[in-house]
Design a protein that fits this description.
mainly alpha, 16 helices
């Protein structure tokens, strides 16, 4: 047993929730962002401007989302170069076989293939053959075997959330907005979670509301401490920057979280805000304005996932644009600011509590 532990340590194979549930998941979201998400934005821009060159670029970027996710996961697991490069084939196979649940299939299968590849890496004199062969054989075999049921399960769960939100838009609007918003601020990836579940439609709209509330909320209520640098880094970057401060004083989380509990049902019940772009946008919030961009993309050219659930291209009205601005920017800022006032008076939030290091 001791020798096996020594082997795992030597191979840097660590079975932990942090490595697989935080590091790998976060890296997967980055890989998805740098392929499918940015490709979708470029392709949609090209379609609207009638520029075929941009359409082609976006299409190519979208096509390599599986390899991009798998390689990103391998990097997070600190895989050796031969393993890392071999994961491109694994990611392609897992994403293709996983169908609608491709991202979840890639996450699970790439982790297993990477760890198997790391286990044999540099153990033989023919490493250049053994390492890529093991990584690819394990990964592609698993893709053929388990990716389809993983995809179906993820799709079914995402569809359940979508249907539940349609049936109970108020309560589900609160639940989805608050939970996905919290996930965005925690050191896990809300974007990856939304991509895995294929969160679109009203549920996607509620998720966008929750993420925007966290980012804009923290950016506004911490303005005194962090000024314009903090406004940009949190409002267009990530509210995750506040996690060290949240650990010290969890009460600073109250304004943004309560704001998300308000904007979520407003999004689902009042403005019927739907996020029918790529599901990853549902968990991005105002990071690079990807949440609002996803909504607009969904209006003009719904993603394949959204289309499979009945979405169609629409011509947005003035009310749609108003709702988008209120849900993503105005209400999160105003509500968080107002909720923070009594929190400060009660001594729950003090000056300096949200200072970014």
């Amino acid at each position: 047993m001791a020798s096996f532990k020594d082997f795992l340590k030597r191979k840097n194979i660590v079975f932990s929730g942090k490595r697989y549930g935080i590091d790998a998941l976060g890296a997967m979201a980055q890989g998805l962002f740098c392929s499918l998400l940015i490709g979708t934005i470029i392709k949609t821009l090209g379609q609207q401007l009638n520029v075929q060159f941009l359409v082609d670029i976006g299409t190519y970027a979208m096509a390599v989302s599986g390899p991009a996710m798998a390689v990103a996961i391998g990097r997070a697991l600190q895989a050796d170069p031969m393993v890392l490069f071999s994961l491109a084939a694994v990611g392609w196979a897992a994403n293709a076989e996983g169908g609608a649940g491709g991202p979840l299939a890639v996450l699970i299968i790439a982790i297993i293939a990477a760890e198997c590849g790391k286990a044999v890496s540099k153990e033989t004199k023919v490493d250049i053959l053994v390492t890529p062969a093991v990584t690819i054989l394990v990964g592609v075999a698993l893709a053929k075997l388990i990716a389809p049921p993983i995809g179906k399960a993820a799709n079914a769960f995402g569809l359940l959330i979508d249907e539940a939100t349609k049936l109970q838009p108020f309560w589900m609007g609160i639940a989805v907005s608050v939970l996905v918003g919290i996930a965005l601020t925690l050191p896990i990836s809300s974007a990856a979670i939304c991509a895995v579940l294929g969160l679109t439609g009203l549920a996607g709209g509620a998720a966008v509301a929750g993420c925007c509330a966290q980012m804009i909320g923290f950016a506004v209520i911490s303005f005194k401490e962090n000024r314009f640098g903090g406004l940009v880094s949190q409002g267009l970057g990530t509210s995750m920057l506040q996690m060290p401060n949240i650990v010290k004083n969890p009460k600073i989380w109250i304004p943004a979280t309560l704001a998300s509990a308000v904007t979520g049902p407003i999004a689902t019940c009042v403005f019927k805000l739907q996020m029918n772009g790529e599901p990853i946008n549902s968990g991005m919030g105002t990071c690079g304005m990807c949440g609002p961009i996803g909504v607009v993309t969904g209006w003009l050219a719904p993603s394949a996932k959204a289309v499979s659930r009945g979405a169609e291209a629409v011509s947005p009205t003035g009310v749609d644009w108003l709702g988008l601005a209120l849900i993503c920017i105005v209400l999160p800022a105003a509500l968080s600011y107002l909720i923070a006032i009594p929190c400060r008076r009660l001594g729950w939030i003090k000056d300096g509590d949200m200072k970014l290091s």
